[in-house]
From TrEMBL:
SUPFAM superfamilies: Thiamin diphosphate-binding fold (THDP-binding), TK C-terminal domain-like. It comes from the Bacteria. InterPro entries: PDH/Transketolase, THDP-binding, Transketo_C/PFOR_II, Transketolase-like_Pyr-bd. Residues 2-168 form the Transketolase-like pyrimidine-binding domain. This is Transketolase.
Length: 301
């Protein structure tokens, strides 16, 4: 199966052909995928070199002229390093752009901690007005990329990952998708963690909601699910644990509820290893998830 990032350049290259407003801004990373698009649209595919602050600043400038910039590099260089530009050049100026990241939380362990960004979504949460998509399959990535580019002048973050579920699901860029019904708790599985969550909850009497758009947070879907499954909620995210716990609290603010937030821990893992080893170390493999979900919801292992 191809990866989400394998879909990125072909999809956006087609969007360049289809929409004269679309522009692509790169900082070396991913430029080979746009070689042909750059030949066809030399004025709308810009590589600024290894200058991530300029990457975001140039995108904001294009947006202020009426363009729809798509900006791409590793998550740590797209959200964390140029955060001041994300905050001011885009946010303060009400300039819209589509930020598309790669390498996610620990997708490239050999790159070390400089190339990991488990806090990216939490950092964007300090700003107003961002839509955040977290696809769990390449097909979903393609759909959500198109949603993001078509979203007027909105600020959108699309978080691509090498981790993926076995199959894609029909996503609409807004809603949580119920994939399992139960009566003894709600488990919200975000993006590429769905398969592990389904394996972990096999035989448990729980409702599983699948989230690929986490900002805005679909509180209405969560409330509907808790109406039949109870108000114990387990939130499982492929980035910093508890990132969306506040959104759960807000959605259920008028009813007693409990929330368990699972995700990437704050402790830095200083060994490279493999992606699967990092997932297990953070308790995001199916076996660990089953133990933690079952313990919280009082269901047997």
């Amino acid at each position: 199966m191809d990866t989400m990032r394998d879909r990125f350049a072909p999809v956006v290259s087609r969007l360049l052909d289809e929409d004269p407003r679309v522009a692509v801004v790169l900082a070396e990373v991913g430029k080979d995928g746009f070689a042909e698009a750059m030949r066809r649209h030399p004025d709308r595919v810009v590589n600024v070199g290894i200058r991530e602050q300029l990457l975001v600043g140039a995108a904001a400038g294009l947006a202020l002229t009426g363009m729809r910039p798509v900006v791409h590099t590793f998550a740590s260089f797209l959200v964390e390093r140029p955060f001041e530009q994300v905050k001011l050049d885009l946010g303060h100026q009400d300039a819209g752009a589509v930020l598309v990241s790669a390498a996610a939380s620990f997708d490239w362990p050999a790159g070390g901690y400089t190339h990991m960004a488990p806090g990216d979504v939490a950092l964007l949460d300090t700003l107003d007005g961002w839509t955040v998509h977290v696809p769990g399959h390449p097909d979903e990535a393609e759909t959500l990329l198109r949603h993001a580019v078509a979203a007027g002048d909105d600020k959108v973050y699309v978080r691509l990952s090498v981790q993926a579920n076995a199959g894609g699901r029909p996503v609409d860029g807004e809603s949580f998708l119920p994939v399992r019904q139960g009566r003894s708790g709600v488990v919200v599985a975000v993006g590429p963690l769905l398969d592990s969550v389904l394996d972990a909850t096999e035989g448990m009497d729980v409702t599983v909601l699948y989230a690929t758009t986490v900002r805005p947070f679909d509180g209405a879907a969560l409330r509907r699910a808790t109406g039949t499954a109870g108000t114990d909620v387990v939130l499982i995210e492929p980035y910093l644990a508890g990132t969306s716990a506040g959104a759960v609290d807000e959605a259920l603010s008028d009813v007693p509820h409990r929330v368990l937030g699972l995700g990437v821990g704050r402790r830095e893992l200083r060994r490279y290893g493999r992606v699967e080893e990092h997932a297990a170390a953070h308790g995001l493999d199916a076996r660990s998830l089953r133990e933690r979900i079952g313990g919280f919801l009082g269901q047997g292992r």
